[in-house]
């Protein structure tokens, strides 16, 4: 909706010639009063009213010497509900039992409403709203969301509904109700890691009100996205039963980049039984798959005179290379498949005692073959078995003479996570002090089994200024390492919030973790040069 106000007067007729300064002031008052009267008449058609003396019968004209009275304005309206807005009063982290106002942690919340208003399509988008978070590219073997909180890496400090979500993949918020970022050390709540803080993702859960929502997006760079969010109560399944289904499909290219393409599909059904009753069972499942044509950008040019030790590193000039893709259009890919089923059981024995148990098994599959563009010397690039040597480019070298070597970052891995978290929330008093005690145990098993490949010469090459992404895939790689890691965690914790009076609270707690890991790695030598003689490493470590 748009509205336009036009105000004006003839300056020659009102202010010019032999008219006095007094008449000029009268003309200015008339113009201002006309503006106020026009605004009041326009606003009067809306629920929030702006009324004043000029909305009724005209009063006496203002005196030339007396101060001009301004109209009184009264604005009335109902406070908007915080549900569906930007404000959140209660943390979704179960271990924080008090309102955020009374919680001695810094917690930033990005609500569903804010994510919808901004049209976010990845987890990284809403995290840009949070001070203290820095986002990284997630390169080499670390594809997926890579971030730091207050300067500390937080790749393994991402949680989903209170449980760790450590897979290496790019997250899409289509199934999230909100995102909360807790800043500062939080090992008392979540154990190992969490030095700079944690990122908590909260899934959309069923409600007892039916609805169906959806979005369709089409934009530049062949961007196309569709989402659906459907909720349906199921009274025939019992009291408080409801089903919710979230779907997403996304495809997009990247502005000013050739070939690069991202494709995602996700489905997240959830079922709740006993909602609004003392005994509740919640079943959730997340499947998210991604099939990308990844892009590692432009090569660095190391410029220096022959024989010098130092060089100046510059990116290739954008005016000639901005859209160039140096990989293999039909050979490079990043594929991830994520499956996360979760079962949550809750029972209220009374208003003062609640038992919660959460069980999850997560499987994260990943495979990648990505070209990293490098400027190598011809000897380093073409010698059989070589692993490349950066080229020192003399000043003035024509860019058309440079060739880009395609260094392949390749591998695949499967990570799994089996965890069970049992806790009890009790509320009681000791004298005049009220207590809210959250205590429990957590046991988990994590595995990671990556295979890595290394590129050796002769490298596939393509011109810097006129690359050919359609080249037949001809990179030379060999299996360099096979790694198997299994980690076990057993933890016991208790967190108590003491209410001394309405103004004073004390929060304290204890957590004990036992972490044990078995690591095995088998390395293979370069099949041509024999460098990096094959062998195996096996270690076991335990910390408490």
Structural commentary:
The model is unreliable at 1-25 and 27-56 (pLDDT under 50). This protein has helices at residues 11-15, 21-43, 112-118, 124-127, 187-190, 318-321, 378-382, and strands at 106-111, 133-136, 146-149, 152-153, 158-160, 163-164, 176-183, 197-203, 211-219, 223-233, 242-253, 261-273, 279-292, 300-303, 312-315, 333-350, 353-374, 392-393, 403-430, 433-448, 451-455, 461-463, 477-501, 504-523, 535-543. Helix content is 10%, strand content 46%. Strands 9, 10, 11, 12, 13, 16, 17, 19, 20, 21, 22, 23, 24 and 25 form a 14-stranded antiparallel beta sheet that branches. Strands 1-7-8-5-6 form a five-stranded mixed beta sheet. A three-stranded antiparallel beta sheet has the order 2-3-4, with no helix packed on it. It folds into three domains: 1-78, no CATH class; 100-203, Ferric Hydroxamate Uptake Protein, Chain A, domain 1 (Beta Complex); 293-543, TonB-dependent receptor, beta-barrel domain (Maltoporin, Chain A), CATH 2.40.170. The protein is globular. It has 544 residues and is mainly beta. The protein has seven helices and 25 strands.
């Amino acid at each position: 909706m748009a509205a336009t106000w036009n105000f004006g007067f003839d300056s020659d007729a009102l202010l010019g010639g032999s008219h006095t300064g007094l008449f000029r002031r009268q003309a200015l008052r008339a113009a201002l009063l006309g503006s106020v009267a026009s605004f009041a008449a326009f606003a009067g058609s809306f629920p929030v009213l702006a009324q004043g003396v000029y909305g009724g019968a005209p009063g006496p004209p203002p005196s030339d010497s007396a101060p001009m009275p301004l109209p009184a304005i009264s604005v009335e309206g109902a406070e908007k509900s915080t549900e569906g807005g930007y404000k959140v009063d209660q943390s979704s982290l179960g271990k924080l039992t008090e309102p955020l106002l009374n919680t001695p942690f810094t917690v930033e919340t990005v609500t569903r409403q804010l994510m919808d208003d901004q049209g976010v399509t990845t987890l990284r988008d809403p995290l840009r709203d949070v001070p203290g978070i820095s986002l990284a590219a997630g390169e080499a073997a670390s594809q997926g969301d890579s971030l730091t909180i207050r300067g500390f890496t937080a790749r393994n400090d991402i949680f989903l509904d209170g449980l760790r979500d450590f897979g290496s993949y790019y997250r899409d918020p289509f199934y999230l109700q909100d995102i909360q970022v807790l800043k500062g050390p939080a090992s008392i709540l979540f154990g190992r890691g969490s030095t700079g803080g944690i990122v908590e993702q909260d899934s959309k859960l069923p409600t007892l009100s039916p609805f169906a929502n959806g979005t369709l997006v089409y934009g530049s760079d062949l961007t196309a996205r569709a989402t659906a969010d459907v909720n349906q109560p199921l009274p025939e399944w019992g009291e408080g039963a409801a089903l919710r289904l979230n779907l997403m499909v996304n495809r997009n290219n990247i502005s000013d980049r050739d070939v690069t393409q991202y494709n995602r599909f996700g489905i997240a059904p959830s079922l709740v039984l006993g909602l609004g009753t003392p005994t509740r069972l919640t079943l959730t499942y997340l499947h998210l798959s991604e099939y990308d044509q990844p892009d590692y950008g432009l090569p660095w040019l190391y410029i220096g005179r022959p024989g010098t030790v130092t060089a100046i590193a510059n990116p290739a000039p954008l005016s000639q290379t901005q859209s160039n893709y140096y990989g293999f259009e039909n050979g490079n890919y990043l594929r991830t498949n994520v499956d996360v089923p979760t079962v949550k059981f809750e029972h209220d024995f009374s208003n003062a005692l609640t038992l919660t148990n959460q069980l999850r098994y997560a499987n994260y599959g990943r495979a990648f073959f990505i070209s990293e563009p490098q400027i190598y010397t011809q000897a380093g690039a073409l010698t059989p078995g070589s692993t490349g040597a950066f080229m020192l480019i003399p000043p003035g070298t024509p860019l058309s003479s440079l060739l880009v070597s395609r260094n392949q970052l390749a591998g695949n891995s499967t990570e799994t996570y089996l965890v069970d978290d049992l806790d009890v929330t009790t509320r009681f008093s000791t004298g005049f002090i009220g207590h809210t005690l959250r205590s429990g145990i957590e046991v988990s098993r994590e595995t990671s089994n990556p295979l890595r490949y290394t590129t050796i010469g002769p490298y596939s090459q393509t011109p810097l200024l006129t690359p050919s992404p359609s080249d037949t895939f001809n990179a030379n790689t060999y299996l360099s390492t096979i790694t198997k890691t299994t980690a076990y965690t057993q933890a016991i914790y208790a967190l108590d919030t003491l209410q001394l009076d309405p103004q004073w609270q004390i929060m304290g707690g204890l957590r004990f973790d036992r972490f044990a890991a078995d690591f095995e790695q088998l390395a293979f030598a370069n099949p041509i040069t024999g460098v990096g003689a094959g062998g195996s490493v096996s270690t076991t470590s335990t910390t408490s």
